[in-house]
Amino acid sequence: MAMAFAGLASCAGGPAFDPASVGDAGERVARVEPLSWWTGMKTPLQLLVGGEGISQYDVRIEGGNGVEVKAVHKADSPNYCFVDVAVAENAAPGTYWLVFSRGEESFKYPYEIAARAEGSATRGSFTTADMIYLIMPDRFANGDPSNDATPDTAEKPARDEFFGRHGGDIQGIIDHLDYIADLGATAIWNTPLLLDNEPEGSYHGYACADYYHIDPRFGSNGLYREFVDKAHGKGLKVIMDIVTNHCGTAHWWMNDLPFKDWVHVFPEYTGTNVCFSTNMDPNASKYDLNLQESGWFVPSMPDMNLDNPYVLQYFKQWAVWWIEYAGLDGFRVDTYPYNEKGPMSEWCAAVLNEYPDFNIVGECWTSSIPQLAYWQGGNANKDGFDSHLPSIMDFPLQEAIWRAVPTDSQAWGEGMARVYDCLSHDFVYHDLSKMMIFPGNHDTDRIGDVLKHNPDRHKIVMTMMATMRGIPQIFYGDEMMFVSKDRSQGHGGLRVDFPGGWTGDKVNLFTPEGRAAALTGTDGKPVPEGQLADLHDFTRRLFQWRKDKKVIHDGKTMHFLSRDNTYGYFRYDDTDAVFVFINNSRGKKHVPWSHYAEIADGLHDGRNVLTGEAVEVTDSTSVGPRQVLVVEYKR
Question: Between the CA of residue 269 and those of 254, 258, 272, 392, what are the distances in Å?
Answer without folding.
Answer: 15, 20, 10, 30
